[in-house]
Amino acid sequence: MADFLIVGGGIAGLSAGARLATMGRVVVLEGETVLGFHSSGRSAALFEEDYGAPATVACAHASGPELARLGVLSPRGFLLVGQAHERAAFEADAEALKMTVIPPAEARAMVPILHPEKLALAGYTDAAQDIDTDLLMQIYARAIRAAGGEIRTGAPVTAIARGAEGWTVTAGGAEIRGRILVNAAGAWADRLAALAGLPGVGLTPMRRSMAQIPAPEGLDSAGWPMVIGAGETWYMKPQAGKLLVSPADEDPVEPHDAWADDMVLAEGLARFEEMTTMTVTRLETSWAGLRSFAPDRTLVLGPDPRDPGFAWCAGQGGQGFLSAPGSAAVLAEMLGGPASGQPEAVLQALSVARFR
Ligand SMILES: Cc1cc2nc3c(=O)[nH]c(=O)nc-3n(C[C@H](O)[C@H](O)[C@H](O)COP(=O)(O)OP(=O)(O)OC[C@H]3O[C@@H](n4cnc5c(N)ncnc54)[C@H](O)[C@@H]3O)c2cc1C
Questions:
Q1: pTM for this prediction
Q2: Helices 54-69 & 324-334, crossing angle to 10 degrees?
Q3: What pLDDT does 172 receive?
Q4: In whole angstroms, what is the distance from residue 228 CA to residue 121 CA?
């Protein structure tokens, strides 16, 4: 019998698994044939530790040192831009993200495609970094296996039965037993709880889309910071000689294999075009992923008071990578592992008890 039976092979399940593997035998079950197929394979891969709800931000702050130690961070920078009429949204974002307000000319020196007449407000932080998300998931998967754990792909969990000692789950035709069941099922986390006979926590999967366009000719965009429109109305990030542009959409949807909506993409690209001198003539590719939020947009971690043998690692929203090491440490603490260093108020804000 596994000590920790983790459902979900995205960053949540893998980071939790690597941490819990130091406390007992871990088995990770992933329904798809590859790890990171859903949200974790579709992110913007940015580490910005002041982005999100306070308790999630606390996990992000705790994550930086481990992400750096694992060698998955590299410099990027984060530039907030706005038009004159967007001052209120700009000031709120600049404060939340701890940005330094800079002259528009300085912003244009960094990212020359910003529109000289539209750009009125700019803020910058160099604290934001790129995360090598594939490498991070590989590192965690290796750590699970090195500790004697097991990762099964192509193993969709379709039935869960509670016994006196733990759980028996049916996954891909096999029955697997575990003492603690860890719900890291991303957008499907409430559905997984239902399979175990427990109520959900009110997670809402929200679609977020991304378009890849050619980088502007004659300019080297590789070192540009990520650029975000005031009020998170769009963002742009250079990647591998291309530009990724997101409409920063947040459309509530049912859990599914998400794809980008053409109209949403077109509207987002129009907002990007308005603030830049670029005209988008061609999309190279597009995709979408689900960012799943609890009602208070804060991570949901630890044992469920209705059945402490059922633990949650869910509600990662748009911060699943940047908060992964810190949230895995909190989950481990809540399951009897070493102290995470987070204050009691943060642990309470993250705990499932707030919904029960
Ligand atoms: C466009 C976009 C941009 C983003 N940008 C960033 C960013 O810059 N920085 C950041 O930190 N985060 C970002 N995020 C958020 C981040 O990607 C997510 O928070 C994170 O990937 C969630 O990880 P997860 O493991 O919870 O979910 P997932 O990666 O979706 O993993 C859950 C897994 O559970 C599996 N599963 C579900 N039900 C079952 C079942 N019954 N049996 C077996 N397996 C099951 C699924 O197949 C899935 O693989 C972004 C997200 C999107 C979509």
A1: 0.98
A2: 110
A3: 86
A4: 12
What stretches in the chain show pLDDT beneath 50?
Answer: none
Cβ contact 294:245 at 8 Å: no
How much is the pLDDT for 89?
A: 98
Report yes or no: 161 and 151 within 8 Å, Cβ to Cβ: no
Q: How many angstroms is it from 318 CA to the middle of ligand 1?
A: 9
Could you give the 3-state DSSP secondary structure of residue 79? strand
2-66+132-203+295-355 fold: FAD/NAD(P)-binding domain (3.50.50)
> What pLDDT does 316 receive?
98
At residue 156, the pLDDT reads 98
**Superfamily the domain 78-125+206-293 falls into:** D-Amino Acid Oxidase, subunit A, domain 2 (3.30.9.10)
Q: How far is the CA of 129 from the centre of ligand 1 (A)?
A: 19
Q: Which of 6, 27, 40 to mutate to test the pocket of ligand 1 (most atoms within 8 A of CB)?
A: 40
Cα distances (Å, whole numbers) of residue 22 to 3, 148, 165, 309, 336: 11, 10, 21, 18, 12
Q: Which atom of ligand 1 is nearest to 185's Cα?
A: 34
